[in-house]
Every structure is written in structure tokens, then in C-alpha cells.
Specification:
single chain; globular
Length: 126
């Protein structure tokens, strides 16, 4: 059984730099691309970032480009999302997702991902 468990969320101040982690069990993350999505209240789930199976390529939403960094630690079977210079509009539930592929076809689409974590809340206050 595949499980993705996110951690690192919470209530932070604007400008803070927390790091989210996604630990996997029942799945060898090194074979698949991994992504982060987020969902704010009353809004659709949106793509945040993705990293290929090797970690050599990354892709970001324009809204987080230059502020967020996605990375992976194969030995720990964990994917991270380093979030810098947080803004109140970054407030959302953040979800880790395991792709169906090692690379990506349509990484911004939720349908490309086969496994999802339960989400972790990030609340940014000004």
C-alpha cells in the first residue's frame, strides 16, 4: 500500500521560509516524478512544482518561481518543498503527489499523478 505523508506545515508569518517534506512508503520514489499541489479555500487544486525521477529537472508554477524549490532525497525516500518569502496568498493545503511517470507529460494536471498525500495546511499571516 502506497502512502505519502506530508509534514512541515503550520502557521507562519509573511516572509518566513518553512520546508515541507513528503515521506513515502510502499513506493520507491526514485522511479517516479514527484509534485506538489496546493488548494486554497474555495479554489481548485493548483500545481506548484514537480521534479523528475532523477532530480535533474524541475518545473514551477509562475506564482512560486524564484521563491519555492522542490528537491528529493532518494536515500530517505522523501521529497521536499522549500518555501521562501512566503506571502498571505500562499495560504493553502499543500499536497504531495506521485506521478505515473519518471518524467512528465502534463505535470500541471492532477490526472498525471497516481498517488496523493493527505495534505498539510500552511497559513501565512501578514
Amino acid at each position: 500500500q502506497v502512502q505519502l505523508v506530508e509534514s512541515g506545515g503550520g502557521s507562519v508569518q509573511a516572509g518566513d521560509s518553512p520546508r515541507l517534506a513528503c515521506a513515502a512508503s510502499g513506493l520507491t520514489l526514485s522511479r517516479f516524478a514527484m509534485g506538489w499541489f496546493r488548494q486554497a479555500p474555495g479554489q481548485a487544486r493548483e500545481f506548484v512544482a514537480v521534479v523528475t525521477w532523477s532530480g535533474s529537472r524541475t518545473l514551477y508554477a509562475d506564482s512560486v518561481k524564484g521563491r519555492f524549490t522542490i528537491s528529493r532525497d532518494t536515500a530517505k525516500n522523501t521529497v521536499y518543498l522549500q518555501m521562501n518569502s512566503l506571502k498571505p496568498e500562499d495560504t493553502a493545503v499543500y499536497y504531495c503527489a506521485g506521478s505515473k511517470y519518471g518524467g512528465w507529460v502534463n505535470p500541471r494536471q492532477a490526472g498525471e499523478y497516481a498517488n496523493w498525500g493527505q495534505g498539510t495546511q500552511v497559513t501565512v499571516s501578514s
